[in-house]
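A quick aside before the break. I want you to see a complete sequence-to-structure record at least once, exactly as it would be stored in a machine-readable document. Don't worry about memorizing anything.
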Amino acid sequence: MHVGQIMTADCANGEGMRVSVFVSGCTNHCKGCFQPETWEFDYGKLYDKEMEDFIIKELSESYYHGITILGGEPFEPTNQRELIGLIRRVKKECPDKTIWMYTGFTYDRDLVEGGCRYTDVTDEILDSLDILVDGRYVEELKNIGLNFRGSENQRIIDMKATRREGSVVLSPWNN
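That is the input. The structure line, written in tokens, reads:
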């Protein structure tokens, strides 16, 4: 896996101050994507232990509310298999931090068993998330007034409630 960018002190991609990790590789290729360079799987720097250690050390600072993982596309199968290690470390070493993830795929269609992006680690990732912002970016539905999303079809899903209830529960951030 490659990472195109790590943003520290980011407040645009989730609640509070965040460390945002932009992974590379995306097969969605949404028209109007704000980071088309991240479509390439080898864009940016190779993800390694040194980078992961930096992310964890930075995230450990008291002023961070959590981490956001976006891209590119975190739910590309190769990215999932790398990200699960980072997510496990965040849960263990920074348990008070929230985890947000963005995907162009749809939670209840693509990320469920039998879905096009379901892997052996998808459920563990989904169980670890606090918030999932799902859905392709649709340029014709662009709305700059939305909280933490770019187009009106995208949803901000409360993953703890969703996993508990067994159906999608939207976050109050959707309003």
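Two observations worth writing down. The chain is about 25% helix and 20% strand. The mean pLDDT is 96. We'll return to this after the break.
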